[in-house]
């Protein structure tokens, strides 16, 4: 587990120049996902048991409410640390902050992962949604509290 975590951290650190250089205009969410997210969450948002939650058929449901959309933007911008329950399974992974990505890129990737579900029409994110979330950075404990409040109001799948 420790070896895997160190390999993951090394991969994230190696990707830092890629993250910092992606401040171009609105991008294709799939490309942003494949560059920055798929190493952990796997192709098509399939996840990795016990480490990284499945995104497919979950993110669209979380993004169905304004609180859910804000939470998802906060997670991508600030990262998520510590144990969580997702889709009926326990995860103890580490998600780094992707705040080095542009607001357009984060909106594109969140829209892409929301499109992997069966909600029709799929929820969409705008750069303004991300900009609003970016205006209030959050600490890990605040993200966990936001997740708990969201889960109490609208259970997170």
From TrEMBL:
It holds the Pfam family Cytochrom_C. Residues 136-157 are annotated as: Disordered. InterPro entries: Cyt_c-like_dom, Cyt_c-like_dom_sf, Cytochrome_c-type_DH. This is Cytochrome c-552 class I. Residues 1-25 form the signal peptide. SUPFAM superfamilies: Cytochrome c. Gene3D superfamilies: Cytochrome c-like domain. The keyword Metal-binding applies. Keywords: Heme, Iron, Metal-binding, Signal. Coiled coil: none annotated. Residues 24-117 form the Cytochrome c domain. It comes from Acetobacter malorum DSM 14337.
